[in-house]
Amino acid sequence: MSHPGESPTDVALRFVREELAALRATFHDEISAIRTDFAGLSATVVEQTNKVTPKIAVLEHRVDEHDKDIAEVRQARADEAAAKESFRRQRNLAIALAAISALVTIAGLILTLTLGD
Q1: Burial code of 28-67, b = ≥16 C-beta within 10 A, e = fewer?
Q2: Of 7, 14, 15, 22, which is most buried with the most CB atoms under 10 A?
Q3: pLDDT, tens digit, 9 for 90 and up, residues 28-80
């Protein structure tokens, strides 16, 4: 509504001011609502983090224990393989020494039989 003596420009400017004031109030209300939503969301995130953090720590501890167990099993397998290899080498050495001893004994018997006559 125009007042007496106002020009159309004055009426348009008053209308723009009123609309701008209404938009500003709405904008501030929306920002306030967003802040409230963020505060609620932040509280929810903190609450959920506080609930989950101990569980994660327990799970990490269990994973570390399992990793340690796996490493021990792998080491035991490696030690067993090394022991088998060592045993195989010792067995082969013993067989070789037995064969050499048998050959030396046979050679000694042959020499004794041939030279003893």
Answers
A1: eeeeeeeeeeeeeeeeeeeeeeeeeeeeeeeeeeeeeeee
A2: 14
A3: 999 999 999 999 999 999 999 999 999 999 999 999 999 999 999 999 999 99
